[in-house]
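Operator note (shift B, R.M.): manual run for Lipid A deacylase LpxR family protein requested after the automated queue skipped it. Running by hand, logging everything below so the morning shift can see what happened. Input copied straight from the record, untouched. If output looks odd, do not overwrite the archive copy; leave it for review.
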Amino acid sequence: MNKRITNGLSANNFSRQYLGLSYDRSFNFSKTMVNYHETIQCVGLVWGFQSRFFSSGHVDISIGLFNRPIWGVFPKNYSKNFIPVKHFVLATQPVVGVAIGDWKKSGAAAKCEALFCEEDIQRHWEVGLPDVTIGQKNQNIGVDIALENRLRHISFSIQPKAAFYYSHRHVLKEFSYSYHNLGFSLKFRYYVFQTLRVRKGKSGYNFSGPYASFLTGYYLIRNRHNLNSEQQGQKVGNISIEPAIGFQQRLFKKLFVDGSVFYTKNIVSKFSADRKGYFASWLGLGFIF
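Run finished. Output pasted below as returned.
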């Protein structure tokens, strides 16, 4: 950063690569977990990239070595005294948020240098930032890829998507748990104010802005646990629907941020309990091509 400031390429604005220490502390109030009412703490050594945009937004993508606890997958009848409290894992950690501070402008910042808001885009690939954890007793990976296509010169798009998630936890010597989820979905989006902004010359058809969407998908789920050398598990396939409202934004021609509030319901499922609908929220960060 000092070199870029000296060359006049940047201001002292907490952006660029960094190396640091992290400490997280959260509070658990779930009655279904063994460590009920205990605080969860995590210490890590991280390397990453942080960038601010506008006066209050920031994106932080990092990878680090963390000392994390394992929780939430072991039988309730196990005493917490027999559970490994923490172990070291190598993991990714994406963050999108709001930055509050005493900012001093070094010059006029062009809005569209960050957003490229006047571009017309016919299609783009979206690759979600991989969710990776590698540890002695805990491994998981989550990847997804989608192709968003604009339907002619209108604010509608169609987005096929494939996603895969795998998790394995070896909590105790006599107990391990694994989970797989393979999903394929098709999402229809309507960017609510985009046509109006295009007519006013304030935007292009660029897959950015508030939207309403409808998704249908098929998800193949398999879980298995091994308790005292006895294996049990199940394999189910669900078909779900998901109406949502959200906001997507392309950043710096390389990144995207997508957040939504949605209602999801399995219309086809092996178990009746899985057919109950519920509201949820989601925030995604990834790369565009």
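Quick read of the result: The two ends are 27 Å apart (CA to CA). Confidence is low (pLDDT under 50) at residues 32-37, 72-76.
Leaving this for review. - R.M.
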